[in-house]
Design brief:
mainly alpha, Leucine-rich Repeat Variant, 11 helices
Length: 193
């Protein structure tokens, strides 16, 4: 027991010295690049902490976009959730993540789906690859899911034409926000034809 405590104190002290050395030398890379590298760590805790910290750097997180996209397929639902949340805050800068967000949508939990749908709604025509998944999400029991699926479909143009029958059904939704978004999407798609 004493040896275990001694080992943990030594481990912590060594990490503290390394961190202090990095700071004293002016760091080794930007904070975002360090967090991006941490997203690829074998440690679940490190990947989760990195994704959570990237949410705090705002639009600078776009520097970590390739790693964030890769982390959408993380084995941990907790990491997937955090990564989807970061991407959703990047607005249209996250458009390159659209294809991976579409893939992740089917197996994600409801909270993660919410953020993935926001990513797709911000991705404009890049979300066209997700048209089948977005159409399916129009049937979600969660009104925010339906809303963001409608918003994404409205932005993909002609690729959303196969979703028109489903959008017509959603235009009669019990949620007013969803209903109005669907009506606007249908009008927008009709104007493109």
């Amino acid at each position: 027991m004493v040896a275990s405590i001694h080992y943990r104190k030594r481990w912590f002290a060594e990490r503290l010295l390394v961190a202090c050395g990095i700071v004293a030398l002016g760091g080794c890379g930007s904070k975002v690049s360090q967090l991006a590298a941490q997203l690829e760590s074998p440690s679940l805790e490190e990947r989760y902490d990195a994704a959570k910290a990237l949410a705090d750097v705002g639009n600078e997180a776009v520097e970590a976009l390739p790693q964030l996209i890769g982390a959408l397929d993380d084995a941990s639902p907790k990491v997937q959730y955090r990564v989807a949340k970061v991407l959703s805050k990047l607005d249209d800068a996250a458009a390159p993540a659209a294809a991976e967000a579409a893939k992740a949508l089917a197996k994600a939990d409801e909270e993660t789906q919410y953020y993935l749908l926001k990513v797709l709604a911000n991705s404009d025509d890049a979300a066209a690859v997700a048209t089948p998944q977005l159409t399916k999400m129009l049937e979600s029991r969660v009104s925010d899911h339906r809303y963001y699926a409608v918003k994404a479909l409205a932005n993909v143009g002609d690729a959303a034409k196969p979703a028109i029958p489903a959008l017509r059904r959603v235009a009669k939704d019990s949620d007013e926000k969803v209903r109005k978004a669907a009506e606007a999407a249908l009008a927008q798609l009709a104007g493109q034809g």
